[in-house]
Amino acid sequence: MVNVLGNNLKLILNNALFSNNMRFVYNTKINNLVSKFMCTGFCQQRFYSSKRGIILGIETSCDDTGCAIVDVEGNILGEALKSQHLIHLNNGGIIPPIAQDLHRKNIEHVVYEAIKVANVSFADIDAIATTVKPGLPLSLLIGLRYGKHLCREHKKPFMPIHHMEAHALTARMYDKNLQFPFLVLLISGGHCLLAVAEKVDKFLLLGESIDDAPGEAFDKMARRMKLKNIPEYSQLSGGQAVELAASKADDPLEYKFQIPLLQYKDCNFSLAGVKNQVLGHLIKEERKKDVLADGVIPGVNNLCAGFQLVVTRHLCHRVQRAMEYVSRKQLIPLDKKTLVVSGGAACNNFIAKGLTIICDELGYKIVRPPPKLCTDNGVMIAWNGVERWKENIGMFTDFEDIGIEKSSPLGERLIEDVANENIRCKWVKLSKLNYPQNKSDD
Ligand code: KG4
Ligand code: ZN
């Protein structure tokens, strides 16, 4: 209520101070005056721009320092990305203070590089969007502080962005025909979730990971299998290495795995058990074949293939149940059934093939942004800013109290409701998914 009064007061003052054809972009004096009448904390305000709308986005939630400038039509005017991947690969995983130092070292250069490529100045930019949740706190803090610093210096509104929401909405930049509502599977290094995206800022959460996310499981297993000691894989992420090794399997069904959570009629995910099964096979093989400390087991390709297959089948099961739930509750119109797949592990072509089979069978269109947009980047943050700009939501001039959040659920939680529906699925056969040898495991 106070915010609404404040907004109205701002509009009145604005109209009084500016001529008719001069539209309000941003005015500190008005904001200061209005804020005296408004609540403490975040004050959301309306912004009007005579320009087409250009948003600068900053991403530092994990180990990529990204910045991009995107306009209201979804044109990427400029972008820059500095990955810390190789450093963390050599350290055997992300060490948060090291990630923070690298973000600190790189952020300014990355932002100015994106601006240079876009050939714009800060005067052309309407707002600054920055990832504030969820993510590694030390990493998030660098983006938050730098984003706020730019807003203060250039008198721009600040847009706090939810990293997973940004992964989901990127699909609407990639596919301009994609409309709400749609089903979305987000599979990344830190998260695994299924949701219905109803609006830019409205999601229904159907399922989430109860332990390791897919990217995390791939990374941990690749590390344990010592894949980076194979020169061809030495610079790849865990997921990329497992996918490549699996593609070379001569007996992809050699190692059998139990599909997780089969007895649970929900849409949650779990990969900790699969990880232990892989580990069991690995230790047995290492002993049997007398593998040296930094050596790789001879059957590593087959092990990767089995691992990738069980992850894919698990994801497909949960997606199929989510589709059945969506149809029971009529959450998506029959002629608009779309599954968006995004996040780093969505780069995996084998997983995508499995999901495509499910989509074909249940009449869904599948939208998967290209790898560059699936993994962390500044474009997705800027685009989320654009989506919010268009809806006139989530822009703050009083942003000092906005902080970071290590974890943050996405949208309204329907996980228990999904389980209560007790949906039994007749699993879609994934035999078409077989590796080249074409053996069936269904
Ligand atoms: O979305 P993202 O860039 O960062 C997070 O928000 O976590 O995802 C990174 C994750 C890493 O764990 C990486 O191993 C995984 O995405 N990844 C893949 C593939 N490419 C990257 N996982 C499976 N298959 C791939 N081809
Ligand atoms: Zn991500």
TrEMBL record:
It is found in: Mitochondrion. One of its GO terms (cellular component) is mitochondrion. Its cofactor is a divalent metal cation. The keyword Transferase applies. It catalyses: L-threonylcarbamoyladenylate + adenosine(37) in tRNA = N(6)-L-threonylcarbamoyladenosine(37) in tRNA + AMP + H(+). Its EC number is 2.3.1.234. Pfam families: TsaD. GO terms for molecular function: metal ion binding; tRNA N(6)-L-threonylcarbamoyladenine synthase activity. GO terms for biological process: tRNA threonylcarbamoyladenosine modification. Keywords: Acyltransferase, Metal-binding, Mitochondrion, Transferase, Transit peptide, tRNA processing. It comes from the Eukaryota. InterPro entries: ATPase_NBD, Gcp-like_dom, KAE1/TsaD, TsaD. Binds 1 divalent metal cation per subunit. Residues 76-383 form the Gcp-like domain. Homodimer. HAMAP family: TsaD (MF_01445). Required for the formation of a threonylcarbamoyl group on adenosine at position 37 (t(6)A37) in mitochondrial tRNAs that read codons beginning with adenine. Probably involved in the transfer of the threonylcarbamoyl moiety of threonylcarbamoyl-AMP (TC-AMP) to the N6 group of A37. Involved in mitochondrial genome maintenance. Belongs to the KAE1 / TsaD family. This is N(6)-L-threonylcarbamoyladenine synthase.
